[in-house]
Write a structure and sequence with these properties.
three-stranded parallel sheet; single chain; 28% helix; 11 helices; 14 strands
Length: 414
């Protein structure tokens, strides 16, 4: 109320009882809403994220609680963070080389949380090693190696496709690291300023502010541009940030997931291996799919066949591929144009439950089992359109048409 703070990081949140957090969170939400109603620009978000450096059960018990609704809305996703760095780099303890299906295992830990909880994924913070130092500690790559930046990009691609809020620790966007530090310092780390839990607290390197281009490696500038463009892609495609995540396939090197939100479908593909991977996905995996694709991020080979999509993903690379709709988003009566007749149809069937036909001819555009205001939002966005839309109907099931072991993980966030 006094200074218009929008969000708080709640350090060591486990030290405050849940009933106290509930009271504080209620007060924050009420104050934020009052400021929003009064027309203030700041102090209206009321975002609270708890820092509990522990496993998913401890996070649940001390941040979210065991009820249907979370006490606090968000907590840092340490379990998925450790899974991710163990796959792409290695952790502070020297565990590296975790297979790609470890990413699905990390995401699966969220199943113990209330459905409305919004875990926040970070790769590093002020208490952890920088991602670059993890690559060095685990003898994977140094700042002179192309692999150093390739692995940063892979980690960013996984993070940017995470459903829920994410946090970037300053310097990650340029692949920063602590010079002359890799192995853990066991003697007088405090006196040397080289303890694992504070070695990442270096000065920020902000291009054009604290550093200039010549002070950064060309690879660092390229990585920063990649990260900036990746965040723009995440911001422009809600399936990445808000979508239900279905892991279609994961083995030692390959991770393939489908992100779905309000009809948009995006494939997230990561190859952590040292050789190219060829694989195919059956078109039966995707509803309302025209057979066309749009590569949003990455460079890969895509062949669109009558029954399947064939991909070639180079070593240590990833890609996002959007599946293009074959129908017109919002065309509830299938007459080829989004107009007032479609609004009429939705109005007639507003509130219809699971027995109502979903899909363009029904009006349940997001396939959540009811025709409601979310479907009107989709219709309003497409009003007046008569060209193919980019919002296909979500798939209700997803099974991989690939040989080999698969890992299925589904998670929907509010």
């Amino acid at each position: 109320e006094e200074v218009g703070i929008d969000g708080w990081r709640l350090d060591q949140g486990y030290q405050v009882p849940l009933n106290a957090w509930e009271e504080i969170n209620t007060a924050v939400q009420q104050a934020s809403q009052a400021r929003a109603d009064a027309g203030h620009e700041y102090g209206t978000l009321g975002y609270m994220v708890s820092e509990i450096w522990d496993n998913e059960y401890r996070i649940r018990d001390t941040a979210y609680g065991n009820g249907p609704d979370p006490v606090l809305p968000s907590a840092f996703d340490f379990p998925t963070r450790y899974a991710a760095v163990q796959v792409f780099a290695g952790d502070e303890g020297g565990y590296s080389g975790r297979p790609a299906y470890g990413l699905a295992e990390g995401l699966n830990t969220q199943n113990v949380y209330p459905d409305a909880a919004q875990p926040n994924l970070m790769l590093g913070n002020h208490d952890l090693l920088r991602f670059g130092d993890l690559l060095q500690r685990n003898n994977i790559a140094d700042v002179d190696d192309p692999e150093y930046y390739a692995r940063h990009r892979l980690a960013f691609l996984f993070q940017a496709a995470y459903t829920g809020p994410i946090t970037t620790y300053y310097g990650e966007e340029i692949g920063d690291e602590t010079p002359n530090f890799a192995n853990q310092v066991s003697w007088n780390c405090v006196g040397q300023g080289l303890c694992d839990d504070h070695v990442a607290r270096t000065s920020g390197k902000v291009l054009g502010v604290s550093v200039t281009s010549p002070e950064l490696r060309p690879e660092q500038v390229d990585l920063m541009v990649f990260y900036r463009d990746l965040m723009a892609t995440r911001g422009a495609n809600d399936a990445l940030s808000h979508g239900e995540n279905t892991v279609l396939f994961a083995d030692n090197e390959l991770y393939v997931a489908l992100k779905q939100h309000l009809g948009q479908q995006i494939l997230v593909m990561l190859n952590v291996g040292d050789s190219a991977r060829q694989f195919s996905l059956s078109n039966d995996l995707f509803d309302d799919y025209s057979g066309d694709t749009d590569v949003l991020v990455g460079v890969l080979g895509v062949a669109e066949g009558a029954q399947q999509l064939d991909f070639v993903l180079p070593a240590l690379t990833g890609a996002y591929v959007e599946l293009v709709s074959s129908t017109l988003a919002g065309d509830a009566n299938d007459d080829g144009v989004v107009d007032l007749l479609d609004f009429d149809l939705l109005a007639q069937n507003f509130g219809q439950g699971p027995g109502f036909l979903s899909g363009p001819s029904g009006g349940d555009f997001n396939a959540d089992g009811v025709v409601d205001l979310l479907d009107f939002d989709t219709l309003a966005q497409a009003f007046g359109s008569s060209s193919p839309a980019t919002i296909p109907e979500p798939a209700t099931t997803a099974l991989l048409a690939l040989a080999g072991a698969g890992v299925i993980a589904r998670r929907r966030r509010a």
